[in-house]
From TrEMBL:
Pfam families: 2-Hacid_dh, 2-Hacid_dh_C. This is D-2-hydroxyacid dehydrogenase. Residues 90-260 form the D-isomer specific 2-hydroxyacid dehydrogenase NAD-binding domain. Keywords: NAD, Oxidoreductase. It comes from Nocardia uniformis.
Length: 301
């Protein structure tokens, strides 16, 4: 933050002190992008003009008062794309090659030969057509997988997704893997419910790297326990963090990681750099990078 501190008064605060820090502030950099402190502190934002989220998702900032304000919201789009795509490929390979099963056999000192699945030729449905979804699509295509997507509008001949559909339920039955990477909005909240899981193949695997609130958790548990779907890899869950007694932990066909799919070594520096580059634009009066459409809840394009 040194480049910013040379040209502005910088206040550092945790959630409890946010209201005091906001008074008189022109810009707010939300480094803790999962914080829920912004709405409560909002009345103190008496001269705020710009809010930058240190993440791709901006749902913690999309409350009515901010949406209605003149405050410009930007995000850190682009920093996490490749790392999340690699995570998705890793989880797909983990399922196909049953790496967890191999580890269990190793821990029991058992030599048990068995066959594994190929991912080349398998079909993937990516739900969410932003930059992260595109990065996932490019990597999975390079691995020989067949990719389609679901977005707000249907189209053909997309350079990354091929075909994009607008009807989730029409697209789900053809997929061997379903990857959720959509932003959390009023339209996407709870989109993966009992009906969605029932539309999937029994051998399909579900991978969520978007937001836990995209999923009705009880419906996912039911689908996994009844065999409606074969497995799930969850980097995000609802609730989060997942309580120690939650039933998801003990399901044998579930892989859980603590919301770190994009957290490559050096990501913190990359997040701060993205903010300081946008700060340069702001000070110079140039257009800001990654301006969020506050009605949509994400950066359009």
């Amino acid at each position: 933050m040194a480049p910013v501190a040379r040209r502005a008064t910088v206040r550092y605060t945790e959630a409890a002190g946010l209201a005091d820090a906001l008074r008189g502030a022109d810009a707010l950099f939300v480094y803790d992008f999962l914080t829920r402190a912004i709405p409560a502190a909002w009345p103190a934002a008496d001269r705020l003009r710009w809010l930058h989220m240190g993440s791709t998702g901006v749902d913690p900032a999309m409350f009515p008062e901010l949406r209605a304000s003149e405050v410009v919201v930007t995000n850190t789009r682009g920093v996490f794309d490749t790392a999340i795509a690699e995570y998705v490929l890793g989880q797909i390979l983990g399922f196909a090659k049953d790496l967890a099963g191999s580890l269990r056999l190793q821990q029991r000192h058992e030599w048990h030969h068995r066959e594994s699945e190929r991912i080349a030729g398998a079909s993937v449905l990516i739900v969410g057509t932003g930059p992260i979804g595109r990065s996932v699509a490019r990597l999975l295509r390079a691995a020989g997988m067949t990719v389609r997507a679901v977005g707000r509008r249907a189209r053909t001949s997309d350079p990354d997704f091929g075909a994009v559909g607008a009807d989730l339920y029409a697209e789900l039955p053809a997929a061997d893997y379903v990857v959720a990477v959509a932003p959390l909005t009023a339209q996407t909240r709870k989109m993966f419910d009992a009906r969605a899981f029932a539309a999937m193949k029994p051998h399909a695997r579900f991978i969520n790297v978007g937001r836990g609130e995209l999923v009705v958790t009880d419906d996912l548990i039911a689908a996994l326990t009844t065999g409606s779907i074969s497995g799930a890899a969850l980097d995000v869950v609802n609730p989060e963090p997942l309580p120690a007694e939650h039933p998801l932990w003990d399901l044998p066909n579930v892989r859980i990681t603590p919301h770190n799919s994009g957290d490559f070594i050096g990501w913190r520096t990359a997040v701060v750099t993205a903010f300081t580059e946008n700060f340069d634009n702001w000070i110079a009066g140039r257009p800001l990078n990654n301006v969020v459409d506050k009605e949509l809840g994400y950066v359009p394009g």
